[in-house]
Amino acid sequence: MGSATVAMVAQWSPLSNLNISQRSDCRLRNNRHPSPRNRCTSRRIPNMVKLSLNLKAELAGVNNLAPADEDGDFTYFFKVECTSCREVHNNWVGISRNEEAEISGSKGNATWVWRCKNCKRESSASFENAPVSYDKEAPKPILTFECRGCEFVEFKPDGEWVCEGEESGTKFEGVDLTEDWYDYDEKAGAEVSIIDMQWEIKRA
Ligand SMILES: [Zn+2]
């Protein structure tokens, strides 16, 4: 009985020690880097949120719709909300995956760094993956990104997209999604279209 109790205590105590050591690690970092810029980062990094860009659309005769972004230079346009002051900014911001910007205070890099005009706080976003083609049978998020201090709230599909003839494999390039898209697949001898697009940004 007695030894069982000891074992339980022994099992439990490393966990409580872990919590203490995590907390004291912040203080340790303070001591190592006395500059206020290097205080415990958990308090200084604004809330991080993972978001994904999702599409729902009616694709007729085509599939595997994706932005023409093999080189990472496609520009994605978003409306941004500052999560500090909750202002949704009116202007569209354009972000490409191959961009890189430095976060102030040596906190590393992000795809995009931005300062809210309203509250002057800095926020950033990083793209986590190359775009995933929209497969109408099993749609997955097209993009996922990590936002700190801001959230993307709206997406505008400017730029050139690509898709393929469903049976024919015909490559369609320069697909314009700013409105319903119609074309003709000569190999299949059929009209093709992409209509009823609904873009949604969700928590990933
Ligand atoms: Zn703000």
From TrEMBL:
<protein>
    <recommendedName>
        <fullName>DUF866 domain-containing protein</fullName>
    </recommendedName>
</protein>
<dbReference type="InterPro" id="IPR008584">
    <property type="entry name" value="CXXC_Zn-binding_euk"/>
</dbReference>
<keyword id="KW-0479">Metal-binding</keyword>
<comment type="similarity">
    <text>Belongs to the UPF0587 family.</text>
</comment>
<dbReference type="Pfam" id="PF05907">
    <property type="entry name" value="CXXC_Zn-b_euk"/>
</dbReference>
<dbReference type="GO" id="GO:0008270">
    <property type="term" value="F:zinc ion binding"/>
</dbReference>
<keyword id="KW-0862">Zinc</keyword>
